[in-house]
Recover the amino acids of this structure.
């Protein structure tokens, strides 16, 4: 089939991640993403599986237990310190701070709370411990070019968006 997703096809889509309980949007992509199905799968395997056989224009919702992707939440990765011990550049909620463990392995921590006296960082993935729904819209499916297959993805691709509104068209 011409525009259905299968291995070797170039796929362009948008997605958002919704909290299953509240319906709140937790993550959304600003611009469409693209990949070569079966070669450069950039989404969770359970999401990729649900995309097989789907066509341009389809919207699918895939429930995900984020503990399966990121592991369970670990409260040992949450640290609070006196705000005076934290450099000024990191004193903003949402700031990512990369730290290394004793083996020199990097890990990202996000500033999650701050008041006049303390600052808290969290090294858990923000989706750990959540049950979410990946809501995907397939914007386009086509045969991948030889060059794209060799490179493992799009070559100089321009997203299919209206530049005035920056939304998928």
């Amino acid at each position: 089939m011409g525009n259905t997703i299968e291995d070797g096809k170039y796929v362009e889509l948008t997605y958002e991640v919704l909290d299953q309980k509240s319906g709140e949007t937790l993550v959304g992509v600003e611009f469409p993403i693209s990949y070569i199905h079966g070669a450069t799968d950039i989404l969770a395997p359970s999401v990729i599986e649900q995309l097989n056989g789907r066509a341009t224009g389809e919207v699918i919702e895939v429930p995900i237990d984020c503990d399966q992707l990121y592991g369970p939440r670990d409260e040992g990765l949450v640290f609070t310190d006196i705000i005076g011990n934290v450099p000024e550049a990191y004193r903003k909620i949402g700031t990512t701070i990369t730290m290394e463990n004793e083996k020199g392995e990097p890990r990202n921590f996000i500033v999650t709370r701050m008041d006049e006296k303390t600052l808290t960082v969290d090294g858990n993935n923000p989706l750990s411990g959540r049950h979410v729904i990946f809501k995907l819209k397939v914007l386009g499916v086509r045969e991948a070019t030889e060059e794209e297959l060799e490179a493992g993805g799009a070559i100089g691709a321009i997203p299919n968006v209206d530049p005035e509104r920056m939304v998928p068209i």
The chain has a mean pLDDT of 86. Residues 9-69+128-151 form a domain with the Chitinase A; domain 3 fold (CATH 3.10.50.40). The radius of gyration is 20 Å.
